[in-house]
What we know:
The chain has 195 residues and is mostly helical. It has helices at residues 12-32, 39-46, 50-57, 60-67, 69-81, 92-109, 111-118, 124-127, 129-142, 148-156, 161-170, 175-193.
Amino acid sequence: MHVVGNPPAERADAAANRRRILRAAADLLASGGPEAVTMDEVARAAGVGVGTVYRRFGDRARLVHALIDDLERDFQAAFIHGPPPLGPGAPPADRLRAFLHGLADRTDAQADLLFMAESGPADARFREGSYALYNRHVAMLLGPGDDTEYLADALLAPFAANLFIHQRRTRGLSLDRVKAGLDALIEGLILTRGL
């Protein structure tokens, strides 16, 4: 997943292949669900060799991350440069709440794609640049302290796709209830850290 900025330039034929592959993956997802999106099926549907798909994306997790890349860029732009409270200009606690609520909305809208992207290697969720950016952003909002990095990871943990899907679909928690739980975590941090 790209961090905000311009993607690297690519040759016209490579760009055309990338678009064809992503369109095929999106079509397979829409028609057959997450299980239908395999590297072999995507290659077949895109009319390219499976080696092309692997060279371009590396694995299924990275292919799925490419599908969600545009929405990710919009979300990053909003919390880095957008208006408060999500963007700069609001107190840290307000920004943290807006960020976690925005991340909950984004995760809810893309839960199946995120689950696919995180179902690869054990570190799949952490390999993409977006997780590191989220962690730095949350750590910045929390302020200095020996436990800042841990707390940032702890606040991001509820957004692991498998846990999020379990809470929303198996436990039946509404999105508002998930956000209320996040608010309770933030309130605890306000009390202990003086945000």
